[in-house]
């Protein structure tokens, strides 16, 4: 990051007025253009050899997720096994990027994941409506229990009311509470209403120190969409060009098939390039997606689809 840009961004965060002026001074998003480009890239086809590579990459990018009130230690232990060895019959199948659980389940998963990351949602997920001290305690508890990634959700009410500095300071505080854990900032794009707001929220999160920006909690519809992800990818591209710091993107919610996942990989490659085609920089937040990736992978290697009961249901 150049000294000039670092100083400029530091000044931006000094006051509500400066932050507002910066965010509203960002170039507007051409909604029609974003929709059309995302749709066009979604028509790209990938041939067999490249498809094999893409399926394995998509598996490596999955944050295998369970965020239900009925989650149990037994379910989480089972998902730990699946995260490490998605296809127990095929040792060549890669492990996923991370397992994502509620803070109460972090201690269950922490001893069982080996080289798979352990992510935990925090900060009053999914609403983000809680006092800051509770959000920080939530984050600290998850990290102490063993999470090395935290998925926080912004206060959309504050953002949509124009209280940008409040949102910024909250992200900064959570980032500090994370310690060495990586911070993914969930924008909940389905509630932000416009692509311009998605771009502003992306920049706000990155200036505040986010390691990843994430589309959605998966609890609000619409969740991840190709055009919204395109806007976020353009934001991380422009942020790196301005600051020298690379930030990841996580598309979460509604991505259920291998075909969908490959469309997102094409979107990544064509928008930000191969630097982001790695689990360190792009993730899928998903529960059902992994099974379809495994079924398509088996189809390529054996010539036939697996039976419906071949892979565990999540």
Fold and architecture overview:
The chain has 314 residues and is α/β, with parallel strands linked by helices. It has helices at residues 3-12, 16-24, 31-41, 48-60, 73-84, 106-109, 132-145, 156-160, 164-178, 195-207, 226-243, 258-271, 289-302, and strands spanning 62-65, 98-101, 117-122, 149-153, 182-186, 212-214, 248-252, 282-286. It has an 8-stranded parallel β-barrel with strand order 1-2-3-4-5-6-7-8, surrounded by 6 helices. Strand 6, helix 11 (226-243) and strand 7 (248-252) form a beta-alpha-beta unit. The longest helix is centred in the last third of the chain and has 18 residues, at 226-243.
List the helices and strands and how they pair.
Elements: H1 3-12, H2 16-24, H3 31-41, H4 48-60, E1 62-65, H5 73-84, E2 98-101, H6 106-109, E3 117-122, H7 132-145, E4 149-153, H8 156-160, H9 164-178, E5 182-186, H10 195-207, E6 212-214, H11 226-243, E7 248-252, H12 258-271, E8 282-286, H13 289-302
Helix pairs in contact: 3-11, 4-12, 4-13, 7-9, 10-11, 11-12
């Amino acid at each position: 990051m150049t000294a000039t840009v670092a100083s400029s961004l530091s000044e931006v965060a000094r006051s509500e007025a400066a932050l507002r002026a910066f965010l509203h001074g960002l170039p507007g998003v051409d909604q029609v253009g974003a929709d059309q480009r995302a749709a066009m890239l979604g028509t790209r086809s990938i041939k067999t050899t490249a498809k094999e590579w893409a399926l394995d990459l998509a598996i490596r990018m999955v944050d295998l997720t369970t965020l239900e009130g009925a989650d149990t230690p037994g379910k989480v232990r089972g998902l730990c096994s699946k995260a490490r060895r998605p296809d127990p019959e095929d040792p060549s199948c890669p492990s996923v990027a991370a397992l994502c659980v509620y803070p109460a389940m972090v201690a269950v998963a922490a001893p069982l994941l080996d080289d798979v990351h352990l992510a935990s949602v925090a900060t009053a997920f999914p609403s983000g409506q809680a006092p800051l001290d509770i959000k920080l305690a939530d984050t600290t508890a998850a990290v102490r229990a063993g999470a090395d990634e935290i998925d926080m959700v912004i206060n959309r009410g504050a953002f949509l009311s124009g209280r940008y500095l409040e949102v910024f300071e909250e992200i900064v505080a959570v980032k500090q509470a994370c310690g060495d854990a990586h911070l993914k900032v969930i924008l909940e794009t389905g509630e932000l209403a416009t692509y311009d707001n998605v771009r502003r929220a992306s920049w706000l999160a990155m200036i505040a120190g986010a390691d990843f920006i994430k589309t959605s909690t998966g609890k609000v519809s619409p969740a991840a969409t190709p055009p919204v992800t395109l806007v976020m990818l353009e934001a991380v591209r422009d942020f790196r060009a301005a600051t020298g710091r690379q930030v990841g993107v996580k598309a979460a919610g509604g991505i259920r098939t291998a075909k969908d996942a490959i469309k997102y990989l094409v979107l990544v490659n064509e928008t930000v390039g191969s630097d982001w085609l790695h689990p360190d920089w792009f993730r899928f937040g998903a529960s059902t997606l992994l099974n379809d990736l495994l079924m398509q992978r088996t189809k390529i290697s054996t010539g036939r689809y697996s039976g419906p009961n071949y892979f565990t249901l999540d």
